[in-house]
From TrEMBL:
Residues 35-123 form the Fe2OG dioxygenase domain. PROSITE patterns: FE2OG_OXY (PS51471). It comes from the Bacteria. The lineage of its organism: Bacteria, Pseudomonadati, Pseudomonadota, Betaproteobacteria, Burkholderiales. InterPro entries: Oxoglu/Fe-dep_dioxygenase_dom. This is Fe2OG dioxygenase domain-containing protein. It comes from Undibacterium terreum.
Length: 132
């Protein structure tokens, strides 16, 4: 893909609400993305009342996927991020490996939830560094 066609694709998607890929009621808005020097994306995600995300992983073709979620607004109930082995987790900050750790969001009840989500992929691990 040429630089101009990649930019055109970005402009067609950026700053517009799109349905989330799990089909469970959440929406996402692409804010910024780039393939180089470090492939990354950033989204504003809204979870209206009744939405949820079932347990899943987000595989990548190569490398290690990292995601930093900043909780901007929490609902009165539900909407909890669930991840067995986050890298870091506090009330408003979640750092995890979506490719390696199953994660989910409980059903949002009593309001809506908004998250700023920034993801990036680090290069492939060298074969010599992998454990047998």
């Amino acid at each position: 893909m040429t630089g101009s066609s990649a930019f055109s694709k970005y402009l067609a998607l950026a700053f517009r609400w799109q349905r989330g890929r799990q089909g469970t009621g959440y929406d996402k808005m692409l804010l910024l993305t780039a393939p180089w020097p470090l492939p990354f994306d950033s989204y504003l995600i809204r979870y209206p009342e009744g939405s949820e995300i079932p347990p899943h992983t987000d595989p990548v073709q190569a490398g290690r996927h990292y995601r930093l979620n900043l909780i901007l607004k929490s609902p009165r109930a539900g909407g909890e991020f669930v991840c067995a082995t986050p890298i870091y987790s506090s009330k408003r900050i979640k750092l995890f490996r979506p490719d390696a750790c199953e994660h989910s969001v409980t059903r949002v009840e009593g309001g809506s939830r908004y998250v700023l989500s920034i993801g990036w992929v680090r290069g492939k691990e060298k074969a010599s560094s992998k454990k047998p």
